[in-house]
Each structure stands twice: as structure tokens, then as C-alpha cells.
Amino acid sequence: MTEEQLRKYFQQIEDNFNGAVISNKVDEIKKCITSDWVLVDSQGGIIPQEGFFNVLEQGLLSHSTMTKEVLRVKVYGDIAVVTGRGQNTGTWQGQLLEADEWITDIYKKENEQWLCVMTHLTPVKK
Question: How many CB atoms lie under 10 A from the CB of residue 62?
């Protein structure tokens, strides 16, 4: 695959992941991630998926929009590093949430499917 084909291929994977997250349904998100996926962000540090799922299930966090533009993809065998820029909106503990972030998703190929192992978020400086 050319770099452009690879970027488009992983853009579709990221779009599916975004759709799962804005569904706010744990079962949908689990289709896109490994059993040991973690989220890393500037406020919570390393957040195990159980913590992320708990705030979703309790209604403390919900996403209404989420977009990512895939800017770089590097594949190393069964591991892929996808870097891009994303924006999302929703609510956190009843307050409006709006984020503009640099995103790195690390994927692992399992049974011919790319699943996210880790998502790392860095806020874009204003």
C-alpha cells in the first residue's frame, strides 16, 4: 500500500472507532479495542478501560461528536502507529466538553482485524 492508501485505510478504521465512542455504548467501543486498551491524557494520566467504561456507564461522560484527521500512519508488522488531529464535543459531569487534540492511536492486528491498544491525547495549544 502507498502512504496515501494506508492513510485512507486507517482513516476508515478511526472513523469506525469514533462512531463507537459517540454511541456511548461500551459494547460498541469494545469492538474497536483490545482487552487491555488504555487511554492516556493530560488530566488523568493512564486511564484503564474499566475507568473509562465506568464514567460512560454512569453517564458522567458522553460524546456527541468526534472527528479525527489521520495525518501519519506507520506499520511495523502487526503494529500500526496512527497519528492525527481530533476534535470532539460532549459532556463531562453535566458540563459541556469541547476538545481539540493531537491523537496517537496504537493498533495491533488480531485475527485480521486492527484493534486499538492505546490512545494518547495531547491538547492543541491555543
Answer: 15
